[in-house]
Every structure is written in C-alpha cells, then in structure tokens.
Design goal:
The complex is a heterodimer of chains A (178) and B (122). Chain A has 178 residues and is an all-alpha fold. Chain A is built from eight helices and two strands, in the order ββαααααααα. Chain A is globular. Chain B is rod-shaped and about 140 Å long. Classes of the chains: A mainly alpha (178), B mainly alpha (122).
C-alpha cells in the first residue's frame, strides 16, 4: 500500500488526520448519529482514496471532502430514515465526563447541547446550509457551489433555518439567549 | 430576535456567535484514522484468484452444459448434411436410370420402325 492511486500511505494518513474532524462533524450534524457519522466519514476518505482524485491544493481538498461528506451523510440519513434524539445529550455527557466542569461551563455546555437539539430538529434542506454556514464558516456563494443549488435558494434556506432556530431558541432557551 | 441579520450585516449577532460556538468541530473516536487506513489497506488487496468450491462447481457445470449443447448442435448439423448428400445421390442415380431407359426405348423404337412396325397410334 506504499503508493496506490497517487497517494503515499503516510501522505494519506496525514490528510485523514488533518480533515477528520471536519468530515466527521459534517456527517454528525447531518445524520445526528455518532456511529453512522464515523462510518460515513470513513467512507468519504475511502472514496477519496479510490477515486485517486487530483486535489489541487488545500481549498480544493476541503471543497471535495465537504461536498462528498454532505452527499454521503444525506444518503445515510435517507437510508436510516430516522432521526436520533440522543446526539445532543451524548455530546453533553462527553463534555462533563471528567466531572470537573464549573457552573459557567455547564451552562455553556447545556446551551450548546440545546442548540444542537434545535439544529437536529430542522428539516434536512435547511439544516445542511446552516451546518455549512456556521460550522464551516462558508459564504452562501460557496455553499451554493458545493450543493449545486442556486444562490437564491441557499440564501432562502439559510434565512428560514436561522429564523426557525431563533424562534425555537427564544421559546425554549430564554435563560441562555437574549 | 428580529429575524436573520447575517446576510445584511458583516458582523454576526449574539445568537449567531453562540450558534457558531455550539457548532465547532466534533472529535471522532481516537481510532478513526487507524480505521480508515485499515479499510484502505484491505481495499487495495488484489482479489483472490482461487474461486470457492461452490463457484468453481457452478463454473464447471456451466462449461459442461455448454459443451453438451455444442456437441448436440454439431451432431444435428452433420446428420442434416448427410441426409442432403444421400438425397442428392439418389436423385442423380434416378436421373441416370431414366436416361438409360430412355435410350433403350429409343433404340427399340428405331429397330421396330426399320422393320415396318409403327408403335404410333393410327
């Protein structure tokens, strides 16, 4: 496996380690399931390896990985056809697993877990652009290119997604959101 | 909470900042990279050349069936060709016999004619 399809093994491992959090996070927030997200993220890297994709620099690498991660995660979500409700709680438990968190950290973690829950409650068409916008800090133009959708559609989905999150947060997170 | 603002404003508002903070990258399991590399390694192994028994048996069965079918086809074709040849030979023999008979009749008719006997109806 020293050099197959244009990748050296060590070079490929570095690429995996550099981008694993990004790919995993996209898969996790689209599918809402850690184990499914791990599998999807592995599939994405395996697909990259098999395709022998000629990546032209870091931007192209990120673009390719994000695009394939979104598509594969969406496929997995449709296959599973269920919406797990425990993801946010799992993340919250992980944050407090050492038992040393102070009151402020707990409050912040609770708020973040609640936001994750609200995000998971968004419809898929609104959730994906929101994930790309706020997790990946992508501009609407970049999201439109990645999803192959018109810019106006992406902007509309972002507005509606954010609006829904704000409304739900205003009702259920009064103590955290002003 | 007066609706989305990020598209019109350069600076995200407080809610968007909290959302960005909540949506920071999650960490996969510690063995994630190892798992990917294992899958990559198993993916590039050359496919096994030795077929499992059931597959080999099925392959042999398919070959045998093909061979039997081919043999039958050749046999039928040879038989048909043989019959055609026999028919053609019989036709030739019949034509020769007819010619010989016609010649004999002609000679007899000529002899009778010379003797003054006519076989023609009056």
């Amino acid at each position: 496996m020293s050099a197959v399809l244009g990748f050296e093994a060590t070079q490929f491992r570095s690429l995996v380690e550099e981008h694993q959090r990004m790919v995993f996070s996209i898969a996790l927030r689209v599918t809402g399931d850690r184990s499914v997200a791990e599998e999807v993220a592995q599939d994405v890297f395996l697909e990259l390896y098999r395709s022998g994709e000629r990546l032209q620099g870091p931007d192209h690498t990120r673009f390719w990985l994000r695009r394939v991660a979104v598509h594969r995660a969406t496929d997995a979500l449709r296959r599973a056809a269920h919406r797990p409700e425990t993801a946010a709680e799992e993340w919250m438990e992980e944050q407090h697993s050492d038992g040393t968190a102070d009151a402020n950290a707990i409050t912040s973690a609770a708020m973040e877990a609640r936001l994750e829950e609200l995000l998971q409650a968004l419809p898929e068409t609104l959730r994906i652009p929101v994930v790309l916008r706020y997790q990946e800090d992508m501009l609407p133009e970049e999201i439109a290119k990645l999803l192959g959708q018109p810019l106006a559609t992406v902007k509309s989905h972002l507005q509606r997604g954010l609006q829904l999150l704000r409304r739900k947060a205003a009702v259920t997170m009064k103590e955290y959101v002003r | 909470m007066n609706g989305p603002k990020y598209l019109d404003e350069e600076q995200p508002d407080e809610f968007e900042q909290k959302l960005t903070q909540a949506m920071r990258h999650a960490v996969p399991s510690a063995s994630f990279a190892d798992a990917v590399m294992q899958r990559v390694a198993s993916d590039v192994k050359p496919p096994a050349r030795v077929l499992p028994m059931p597959t080999r048996w099925r392959t042999m069965q398919a070959w045998a069936a093909g061979a039997v079918a081919a043999t039958l086809l050749v046999g039928v074709a040879v038989q048909q060709m043989h019959r055609r040849q026999e028919r053609a030979q019989a036709t030739r023999q019949f034509e020769i016999a007819t010619q010989i008979e016609q010649q004999a009749l002609d000679r007899t008719r000529e002899k009778l004619s010379r003797s003054g006997i006519s076989l023609e109806p009056r």
